[in-house]
Amino acid sequence: MKAPDFRYHRPTTVEEAIALLADAGDDGKVIAGGQSLVPIMNMRLAEPETLVDLTGVDELRTGSKTPSGACYGATTTHMMFEYELVPDVTRGLLPHAAAGIGYPAIRNRGTVGGSLAHSDSSAEWPTVMAALDAAVHVRSVRGARTVPVRELLLGFFTTALEPDELITEVEVPGLAPTARWGMYKMCRKPGEFAESLAVALGEAEPDGPWREVELWLGAAADRPLRLNSTEEAVRGEAFADLLPDRLVAPLAADLGQDLSAIDPTGRHALQLHAVTVQRALQSAERGDTA
Ligand SMILES: Cc1cc2nc3c(=O)[nH]c(=O)nc-3n(C[C@H](O)[C@H](O)[C@H](O)COP(=O)(O)OP(=O)(O)OC[C@H]3O[C@@H](n4cnc5c(N)ncnc54)[C@H](O)[C@@H]3O)c2cc1C
Question: Can you name the CATH fold of 181-286?
Fold first, then answer.
């Protein structure tokens, strides 16, 4: 199947783009890399009458450091993060996450703003940007606002964006020199979306004990999930000998699941998540992904 007909605009400024979006109303959509939207249109799951293509808006494809971290234009591609064509302020987490997204062709066109606006909890950027407490800058003809990623992602393919709003930038706080991170993506073969995706972020002295650890899980719910019970269960521990089985009960609590009533499929998924969280923690402790 192919997409139905649509009107196509390729503005060169943000001002023009938001004016076109406002004119299009509920029937308009932004297209960035097209790596999610085009397949959806071809399957006729989305039938926008107007597409506003962002690839001609150069001001959206930039990245620069700020006093507290960095700001990336919404159409910064996954590959630009992977090859550090934009500055990294996360001690390697952003390039590592980007390198795990799909295939080179996908990474060459897919954008950070598109991934966040698409809000697929199996995708890398929603979980990584939520873990980093990033925020998006949003513009429309009605004005500008800043939305933390944790508040932007409302559920499967659902965000807090209004139809006329455009993500213009993603602002990422920098990680402290003592910060450690680990990330682990479980998928059946490279290039696929995650079946489970864990990010561990923590503070520690060089070679010293963990002071704090924050855990985020993707591909487990309708949006990235902070694992409060699991964090509590591992607080103050070293992770080298941590076994996934220890994480199953706190993970079930984080996912709101009753372990005594869970079916084998649910149990299998829980076990996968326990392994990704264990590997993210151990990788953070070893510092081998940074
Ligand atoms: C085969 C395949 C494998 C993939 N594997 C992975 C993977 O392993 N991990 C992963 O994370 N992703 C994966 N993806 C998805 C890919 O990363 C997409 O690039 C990404 O999800 C969407 O980015 P995009 O720029 O292509 O957005 P588009 O497809 O252009 O748009 C997606 C949605 O976001 C909206 N949008 C886009 N930009 C903006 C903006 N600036 N402001 C407001 N709304 C906007 C669009 O209107 C649309 O609704 C895969 C895709 C394919 C086709």
Answer: Enolase-like; domain 1 (3.30.390)
- Residue 119 C-alpha to ligand 1 middle, in angstroms? 9
Fold of 60-173: 3.30.465
pLDDT, position 1: 77
pLDDT above 90: percentage of residues in the chain: 89
In residues, how long is the chain?
A: 290
The residue extents of the domains of the chain are: 7-53, 60-173, 181-286
Q: 193: Cβ below 6 Å to ligand 1?
A: yes
Q: How far apart are CA 63 and CA 81, in angstroms?
A: 9
Express each pLDDT in 31-75 by its tens digit: 999 999 999 999 999 999 999 999 999 999 999 999 999 999 999
Q: Which atom of ligand 1 is nearest to the CA of 187?
A: 8
Whether the CB-CB separation of 10 and 30 falls below 8 Å is answered with: no
DSSP conformational letter for 27? G
Between the CA of 116 and the centroid of ligand 1 the distance, in Å, is 8
The mean pLDDT value for 82-111 works out to 97
Instruction: Please state the atom number of ligand 1 nearest to the C-alpha of residue 120.
Output: 21
CB 172 within 8 A of CB 94: yes
Going by alpha carbons, the residue nearest to atom 52 of ligand 1 is 35
Q: Which atom of ligand 1 is nearest to the CA of 191?
A: 8
Question: Does the domain at residues 7-53 carry the CATH identifier 3.30.43.10?
Answer: yes
